[in-house]
Specification:
globular, 267 residues, alpha/beta, Rossmann fold, eight-stranded mixed β-sheet, Cof-type HAD-IIB family hydrolase, single chain, Hypothetical Protein, Haloacid Dehalogenase-like Hydrolase, Chain: A, domain 2, magnesium ion binding, HAD-like_sf
């Protein structure tokens, strides 16, 4: 099949559980790019932890970051440029921040290019470093007077399960959208922010119809993207609901599933 855009999720999809970008996946992505496809990384990560992967892939161009809340254009050594964002004000997450403070839940808030935390243990710092992130310490994030694109809380699976259920029932996030972006994470963003909407905007910018788009992902934050693309591919490590939503299933992220899909449908 011929695809003009190949949209790739990162964590749980393009990289393995050791946060490694394997040679097999790198080679396949580069070959697809050389055949003319635009490679778009679509991730919950911010630009700071996405750009190193683009460099490793020897690519530049557009990335969809913060689960679709920000679209970034990068070109070589030039500073990356914000193309579009779905932003909200800090007032809209005041209840979430106060909840996390009261119950000792770790959280961070992000603009398109920066991340802020109110506290940071050595263990938490180590986790951020795995994602190439260095969050900025800010004593009271509720005093930030800049547009935000994402609020994220992190915890053990049982804790995040409980909070997700509680927040779903109470709708404490108001007119924003809550999304389970991983086993250990909950994201809250603008209601229009999604990987699917951001991918649709890029496709329209390039005049590419959905049937000429391939998307590969592994989690619930990939559902809209998989549905929009002409060929939505779920990783074998995806939850069953994600597999059912995709047209096809490829190998897991620890088995070079991206390479397998590209070899079968593109190369």
């Amino acid at each position: 099949m011929d695809f003009d855009i190949i949209a790739l999720d990162v964590d749980g999809t393009l990289i393995n559980d050791q946060f490694e970008l394997t040679e097999g996946n790198k080679e396949a992505v580069r070959k697809a790019h050389k055949l003319g496809a635009k490679i778009v990384l679509c991730t919950g990560r911010g630009p700071a932890s996405t750009l190193p992967l683009l460099k490793e892939l020897e690519l530049e161009g557009y990335s969809i970051n913060h689960n679709g809340a920000a679209t970034i254009h990068s070109r070589g050594s030039e500073e990356p440029v914000l193309v579009h964002e779905f932003a909200f004000s800090v007032n809209q997450i005041e209840l979430l921040v106060r909840y996390c403070r009261e119950y000792g839940v770790h959280f961070d808030v992000s603009t398109a290019f920066h991340m802020y935390v109110e506290k940071l243990t050595e263990e938490e710092k180590t986790v951020y470093e795995k994602f190439f992130l260095t969050p900025e310490l800010y004593e009271d994030v509720l005093k930030l007077e800049i547009p935000l694109v994402k609020f994220t809380l992190a915890g053990e699976v049982a804790q995040v399960d409980r909070i997700e259920k509680e927040w779903t029932e109470s709708r404490i996030y108001g007119d924003l959208t809550m999304m389970r972006s991983g086993e250990f994470f909950i994201d809250v963003m603008h209601t229009d922010a999604s990987k699917g909407n951001a991918l649709k905007a890029l496709a329209e910018r390039w005049d590419v119809p959905p049937e000429r788009i391939m998307a590969i992902g592994n989690y619930f934050n990939d559902l809209e993207m998989l549905a929009y693309a002409g060929l939505g591919v779920a990783m074998d490590n995806s939850p069953d609901a994600v597999k059912k939503a995709a047209r096809v299933v490829t190998g897991s992220n620890n088995e070079d599933g991206v390479r397998e899909a590209l070899m079968k449908y593109v190369l």
